[in-house]
Amino acid sequence: MYKNKILFLVIFSLASYGAHLAIPEASSSVEREKVVAAEAQAKGTITDVEVTRKLRERLMADDQLSTNAQNIKIVTVKDAITLQGPVASRAEKVKIENFARAMAGKKKVYNRLTY
């Protein structure tokens, strides 16, 4: 079990590093604020990774969500969960935020989803 967690964290870190390389440099402070780098997740704890995993599972299990909604960016670090990416409708945006809030506990949820 412990080896699986370490393997997951190593793979996730490598994937995060690759995603970081693909993120274009934001040209203004407003754009930089909107970009949630995947590398931020690598700074999270095992609990943060678990919250992200559970939320992703919940999204993937909901066959009423669009493919875009199921594949949004979820970054959980310390006291916050950030949701970012395109969804099909306002209803999806609200539904995903509600899922995140249900799992957040005391964490803040930042909904940057667009439709």
Task: Give an overview of the whole structure.
By secondary structure, this protein is an alpha+beta fold. It is 57% helix and 17% strand. It contains six helices and three strands. Strands 1-2-3 form a three-stranded mixed sheet. It is globular, with a radius of gyration of 14 Å. The N and C termini lie far apart (39 Å). The model is unreliable at 17-34 (pLDDT under 50).
The backbone outline, from C-alpha atoms, is: globular
Query: What is the helix/strand order?
Result: HHHHHEEHE
Low-pLDDT regions: 17-34
Side by side, the strands of the main sheet go 1-2-3
How many angstroms separate the termini? 39 Å
Q: What is the structural class?
A: alpha+beta
SS elements, strand count: 3
In DSSP terms, counting alpha (H) and pi (I) runs of 4 or more, how many helices? Answer: 6
Largest sheet: 3 strands, mixed
Task: Report the helical percentage.
Answer: 55-70%
Mean pLDDT over the residues = 80
Rg over CA atoms, rounded to whole Å, is 14 Å
Percentage of β-strand residues: 15-25%
List the helices and strands and how they pair.
Elements: H1 2-22, H2 29-34, H3 39-42, H4 46-61, H5 67-70, E1 73-77, E2 80-86, H6 90-104, E3 108-114
Helix pairs in contact: 4-6
